Amino acid sequence: TRTINLAVVAGDGIGIEVVEQGLKVLEAAVAGSDVAVAPTSYDLGAQRWHATGDTLTDADLEAIRTHDAILLGAIGDPSVPSGVLERGLLLKLRFALDHYVNLRPGKLYPGVTSPLANPGEIDFVVVREGTEGPYVGNGGSIRTGTPHEVANEVSVNTAFGVERVVRDAFARAQARPRQHLTLVHKHNVLVHAGHLWRRTVEAVNADFPDVTTDYLHVDAATIFLTTNPSRFDVIVTDNLFGDILTDQAAAITGGIGLAASANINPDRTAPSMFEPVHGSAPDIAGQGKADPTATVLSVAMMLAHLGYDAESAAVEAAVAADLAERGDRVRSTAEVGTELAARVRG
Amino acid sequence: TRTINLAVVAGDGIGIEVVEQGLKVLEAAVAGSDVAVAPTSYDLGAQRWHATGDTLTDADLEAIRTHDAILLGAIGDPSVPSGVLERGLLLKLRFALDHYVNLRPGKLYPGVTSPLANPGEIDFVVVREGTEGPYVGNGGSIRTGTPHEVANEVSVNTAFGVERVVRDAFARAQARPRQHLTLVHKHNVLVHAGHLWRRTVEAVNADFPDVTTDYLHVDAATIFLTTNPSRFDVIVTDNLFGDILTDQAAAITGGIGLAASANINPDRTAPSMFEPVHGSAPDIAGQGKADPTATVLSVAMMLAHLGYDAESAAVEAAVAADLAERGDRVRSTAEVGTELAARVRG
Ligand SMILES: CC(C)[C@H](C(=O)O)[C@@H](O)C(=O)O
Ligand SMILES: CC(C)[C@H](C(=O)O)[C@@H](O)C(=O)O
């Protein structure tokens, strides 16, 4: 028997509900095979912080490191000051475990209604850098709360960090039928960071001569995501631009209820982490209203990352079949999970 | 006779073509009144840079300062290294002339087809901060071009700078029927800058008790611009987020061919600047294909700023009538300008 030694960080709000369904479908995907799932729940998030003041201790982190992968629900609650859990838990995991490839597919499945009048075929993937840029936490303020306050945020970009994610994006583009890579940045304003990204894409292209490339400013990218999303194959971009574009990508492909993501450490020096793009949605938490599909698709990405390609394909096929037939049926979070699990079992 | 002493910076590419039509409509708007337009053209942009190496000299700037307003076409050309004209000319004008309110309406006119399936009524305005944030040019790189390069970009935000633009946005919200203001930022990650913005909106709200407010992270804002743009009335946001959101806003309201903007110095210590949101579009430059409507709507914003409310309304009404009737007729840049001018004359 092979075992998937899984760290489960359900987190806050609907995170708890969707992760339960993700695990249900994961169990279904390995049922009857020689693969077993051994989940360990980590009590992290708003409740733990209120009780202990901890977001993610060194001990938590070392324990999590021992797993094969992490399934994360959602982090954040209005009862906790903004930034505390995001920086102290979610981003700390991404940074500490060197998740430098934040992979977010933008795919419009048959049967899903896009808010765009003429969406066309949408099937791209955003490779969002995960460990640099404006997310590094190198900001600060002086004279805080006075009329003379100055608050700075520093975006840090390194040749090392940009090259490794660009290389990963090229490899993904090379493996896809269209073999196209779009760099998104804002190099006419953020000239130093932007030119580093641009030079890196040009240089790495030499190692992937089959891949064609183009460049878009981030503002123009939001236009094309509205008017012609079919033009995109692989997008590579920085941490903040990737955050923005992937929410827009989710919106045009049926909403964040369907948007999966993978925080990958391609060097496998630490476990990768799989999570829906959506947040903890406190407004609907605990009501069984959340769509667990994004989490289930994130489970499919996890299975693929761990080398279980057939199981991954079965989960994605179950979701695709469910989406093709769901119409406007209203189902609870658990009902969707149960039906997806049944489809996976076949 | 009153005179509008106008600086004209046509700039590059289609900028030259659209500004010509903007001036045509401006002349029509004041024809038969006691208002005269005295335009002075400034030779700025790619050609000047190639010929002299200048982007905007002190002498240029001092000359431009003497005008009542600036009409700008578009800046940027592929023959000039990225950032040179953007930073050295366009942003230099915005910063030197203290255009801290960058006003960009998002309005879907009757007759215009939105790429959204169910756009609903779209009528909001983005108040984009214009003199701070990641646009300040406080970046740099070390070991440039080596594997050890570090490229930083610094976003600078001050209580002074944030408060003045937030105050302006509240005043605009107060004057609109819905009296609603949405702050867009990313305060769960950019905690220092984000919390400054948030605290400022809370504090200034006390002076505008009729205005209701809410907050969206920038990523969530791109979702609502896709699924429910009617929810927005006034948006206030930082320079970079405003850049991104206003291109998306243009896309959902019919494209950047229609998107107007005003770079306003509300204290009137220097002339304000009016420009279409679109760029120089080198791919279609010189072909008479560009839509001058965005420039004409920017002229309407200029007339309003200068106190010519009736003339401003006449120009906007001409555009609205043209949009309601244009269908898919193909017209040249000059034809659109001529027809709009004729409508303004009545
Ligand atoms: C919760 C937040 C810190 C996070 C981010 O900005 O990365 C989220 O928006 C996401 O995209 O995963
Ligand atoms: C050309 C560029 C510097 C500019 C900006 O980023 O502000 C443009 O995109 C705009 O929105 O006016």
From TrEMBL, chains A, B:
GO molecular function, one term: 3-isopropylmalate dehydrogenase activity
Origin superkingdom: Bacteria
Binding site for NAD(+): G279, S280, A281, P282, D283, I284, A285, G286, Q287, G288, K289, A290, D291
Pathway(s) served: Amino-acid biosynthesis; L-leucine biosynthesis; L-leucine from 3-methyl-2-oxobutanoate: step 3/4
Keywords: Amino-acid biosynthesis, Branched-chain amino acid biosynthesis, Cytoplasm, Leucine biosynthesis, Magnesium, Manganese, Metal-binding, NAD, Oxidoreductase
Catalytic activity entry: (2R,3S)-3-isopropylmalate + NAD(+) = 4-methyl-2-oxopentanoate + CO2 + NADH
Keyword Ligase in annotation: no
Positions that bind substrate: R94, R104, R128, D219
EC nos: 1.1.1.85
Record InterPro entries: ICDH/IPMDH (IPR050501), IsoCit/isopropylmalate_DH_CS (IPR019818), IsoPropMal-DH-like_dom (IPR024084), LeuB_actb (IPR023698)
GO biological process: L-leucine biosynthetic process
GO cellular component: cytoplasm
Compartments it resides in: Cytoplasm
Site residues (Important for catalysis), renumbered to this chain: Y135, K186
Chaperone as UniProt keyword: no
Family the UniProt entry places it in: Belongs to the isocitrate and isopropylmalate dehydrogenases family. LeuB type 2 subfamily.
Purpose of the protein: Catalyzes the oxidation of 3-carboxy-2-hydroxy-4-methylpentanoate (3-isopropylmalate) to 3-carboxy-4-methyl-2-oxopentanoate. The product decarboxylates to 4-methyl-2 oxopentanoate.
Complex and partners: Homodimer.
Name recorded for this polypeptide: 3-isopropylmalate dehydrogenase
Annotated source species: Flavimobilis marinus
Gene expressing this chain: leuB
